[in-house]
Design a protein that fits this description.
single chain; mainly alpha; 5 helices; 0% strand
């Protein structure tokens, strides 16, 4: 089964690299598990907004910008209702 990767993971991973943060440091400072952080950074899991806000704070990233990236991806991945007369 093919698992879709979340783009926000690439963004988070790049921010970690720029901020010189390890996944373990991110987990410790955000109150997340190391496994969850690894999954967020690899794009396997989609993070919560709480995590995004905490991550922005510890990495020195603009929280509004990071939340916007989160919202854009969340909207793109939301199931869209089928239009009348449109086959699925």
């Amino acid at each position: 089964m093919h698992q879709t990767r979340h783009h926000i993971g690439v963004v988070l991973e790049r921010i970690c690299s720029q901020a010189r943060l390890t996944a373990e440091a991110v987990a410790d400072r955000t109150g997340s598990t190391s496994r969850d952080v690894a999954d967020f950074l690899s794009g396997k899991k989609f993070p919560s907004t709480i995590f995004i806000l905490r991550f922005a704070q510890i990495s020195g990233t603009d929280p509004q910008l990071l939340v916007k990236v989160w919202e854009d991806e969340h909207e793109r991945r939301a199931p869209r209702p089928a239009r009348a007369g449109q086959a699925r």
